[in-house]
Amino acid sequence: LALMEKLRKAGTPLGEYVEGKLYRGVLTGFNEAFVIDEATRQRLIAEDPKSAELIKPWLRGRDIRKWKAEWAGLYLIGISSSANREWPWSKEKSEAKARSLFERAYPAICKHLSQWEDQLKARDDQGQFWWELRSCAYYQEFERAKIVYADIAKHLRASYDTSGTFCANTLYILPTDDLTLLGVLHSKIFDWYARNNFQPFGDPWEDGRLRFIAQFMEKFPIIAASDQQKKPIVQRVRRILDDPDGPDVPRLEREIDQLVYTLYGLTEEEIALVEGRK
Question: What is the pTM of this model?
């Protein structure tokens, strides 16, 4: 309890640290229509080259591992709601006229989505028109550098993405290029804090899973580190990201843990507690 109180007083809650930019992935309401494979992507672009404007790489929760993403070759047809973006059909009040404009602008995509028109009209998660995704004010954040992590896991599984990949609703994103933060979130201090504070499924100390959703994550305290303190952490994080399956990763992770312990001012006794040696 004393260590927990020390951590909470030592830093700024993550939610404040990232200025509230802790976002859930996209909920399409009907993945069968909006999530496509490489063959379908190539076909749609062959039918109409403008289709490429709407097709984005897509990650699911199961695709994220510690430090890396194992992309499954899937894509999202990303037509955001007219409430968030101006489309050629956005100002039309008549669905028939809007659909005509949509078909004219993106004929191959329109034909593809029309196979599921009834299901897309019936879903709760849709935009102004049935071919659009639900209203979301932060779609542009997926295009930026970001930390991506799974919402439920045995331990935090996070990766760093700079490719503009969109994410499913089983993932969260932190739009930031702060690699120190990625190192801290993969540290033993964070893991210990999460197992003591986050909602578990089963025993979190005995192979149970944890919910890394926003309401828990946003409370984790982040130390305002100096550039000098950040530099050695960032160096090691970059080396891991360059080769996340390499033989040096366990050693680099241990070195990051030691740097984070120093950052948070832990004593040897407190480190032993975090590492389960006490």
Answer: 0.92
Q: Which two tokens mark 8? A: 């909470």
Q: Give the CA angle between residues 124, 79, 84 to the nearest 5°.
A: 80
* CA–CA distance, 223 with 70 (Å, rounded to integer): 30
What's CA 99's distance to the chain center, in Å? 32
d(CA 54, CA 76): 8
3-state secondary structure of 262: helix
**Which residues are within 8 A (CB) of 165 and not within 5 positions of it... i.e. 6 or more apart?**
56, 57, 58, 59, 69, 71, 142, 148
**Separation CA 35–CA 29 (nearest Å):** 11
Locate 37 and state its tokens.
Answer: 């494979």
Look-up: residue for tokens 């964070």? 190
- pLDDT block averages, 10 residues each, the chain of length 278: 91 95 95 98 98 97 96 96 92 95 98 97 92 92 96 96 95 97 97 95 91 96 94 98 97 98 95 87
